[in-house]
Write a structure and sequence with these properties.
Elements: H1 30-40, H2 76-86, H3 105-108, E1 109-115, E2 120-123, H4 124-131, H5 139-154, E3 164-166, H6 171-184, H7 195-202, E4 217-224, E5 229-236, E6 241-245, H8 252-255, H9 257-273, H10 276-279, E7 290-293, H11 306-318, H12 331-352
Parallel strand pairs: 3-4, 6-7
Antiparallel strand pairs: 1-2, 4-5, 5-6
Helix pairs in contact: 1-2, 4-12, 5-11, 6-9
């Protein structure tokens, strides 16, 4: 019996094996899918049908994301799809405030950049902060919402009874610094150093701004750095009063004093120097503003909703709505509505290439 020949050892070359990479999946939100299906006329249970209900916000929808009526509810089916999308891909510790990125990587990066006029983002976490309960809003969120509140009036002045404008979150800090410099200099106004404050008042600092000679009320969002808390000041130039709307009222006098004193005392001096009172035929000029604390505004029951309270205090008061409706029980609705309307507006601008000249200011 023949023996089988022994197999020779054949040298094996080192071959580098590389796994074939899959192309990354482009992820669209349910809102995008539903809107696209609706526009293409696709039939099916997930298609958004045009509502027969007249949309009161339609005349300003291409200019401002917010419905004219602050209490008008968004499309139910689109809002539900948006809420589901917002809850997809969350990190396990997403509720922790020190966690900046709330989603796993392939959910965090948006397929399209969201352009909100004064700020741009391509991160889903930006929307998360607005959307999720108890999340503390940043300067960026507050400034964006107040920009659109100004824009809302800019394009619909005949619909508002009030003559108003807003500032951003930085105005109170500029005023506080200017007040300190004023006191240190023995009461001298240096308009070279105060040029930023001047641009807030007469124009040129912010998009969709109204000069203060043309308004009666100025809505000022204020940040208390000690407690990481948002408060609303409303300066009424016609009555020479500052009203404080605080959703956490304990120790109100001591907590807001360093921001309130410059508004009540220093601001009249600046306005008088800029002849704002002369144009308004106000002879009280340099006299400090009267300070009032609203006693009936609803309160928050957690440490994160103050920013939403400030936005909604302002919006409701601009419309002469009852501030009692800005309550803790409505915070989830307000958050969902804000996030959904901003996202939908940015997507609409991106897809239809919509932009007004004022957004370029």
């Amino acid at each position: 019996m023949k023996q089988k020949a022994a197999k020779k050892d054949v040298p094996v070359k080192n071959v580098r094996c590389t796994a074939r990479r899959k192309k990354p999946t482009v992820r669209f939100s349910p809102s995008e899918k539903l809107i696209k299906a609706n526009e293409e006329g696709v039939t099916g249970s997930n298609v958004v049908k045009k509502s027969k209900k007249p949309r009161s916000e339609w005349p300003l929808q291409r200019k401002c994301p917010f419905s004219f009526d602050p209490e008008e509810e968004p499309d139910e089916q689109l809002l539900k799809a948006f809420d589901q999308w917002m809850n997809e891909g969350l990190q396990k510790d997403h509720e922790e405030r020190n966690v900046v990125v709330k989603y796993v990587p392939h959910h965090e990066q948006l397929t399209k950049t969201l352009d909100f006029g004064i700020t741009i983002t391509h991160k889903k976490s930006w929307l998360y902060i607005l959307h999720q309960p108890k999340q503390w809003l940043t300067d960026d969120h507050i400034c964006t919402c107040f920009y659109y509140l100004r824009k809302k009036r800019k394009y619909n002045m005949d619909w508002f009874k009030q003559f108003f404008t807003t500032t951003d979150t930085y105005f109170a800090n500029y005023l506080k610094s200017g007040w300190k410099e004023f006191n240190n200099s023995g009461g001298k106004l240096d308009w070279e150093k105060l040029s930023t404050i001047r641009s807030y008042i007469v124009g040129g600092r912010m998009a969709c701004h109204f000069p203060w000679t043309e308004v009666d009320r100025v809505y000022i969002p204020v940040h208390d750095e000690v407690l990481e808390h948002w408060i609303l000041f409303i300066v009424d130039l016609s009555t020479r009063a500052v009203t404080v709307y605080d959703s956490l009222k304990s120790d109100k006098d001591t907590r807001v004093k360093d921001k309130l004193e410059p508004v009540a005392t220093f601001l009249p001096i600046l306005l008088d120097s800029l002849s704002i009172f002369t144009e308004r035929k106000d002879e009280n000029g340099l006299a400090p503003f009267k300070v009032e604390h609203c006693s009936e505004n609803p309160q928050q029951d957690n440490g994160g909703d103050c920013g939403v309270f400030v936005i909604k205090y302002a919006e409701y008061l601009m419309h002469d709505y009852s501030i009692l409706d800005v309550c803790q029980e409505k915070m989830d609705f307000f958050r969902g509505k804000l996030a959904f309307e901003l996202y939908s507006h940015a997507m609409d601008k991106e897809e239809k290439e919509l932009a007004s000249d004022l957004e370029r200011e």
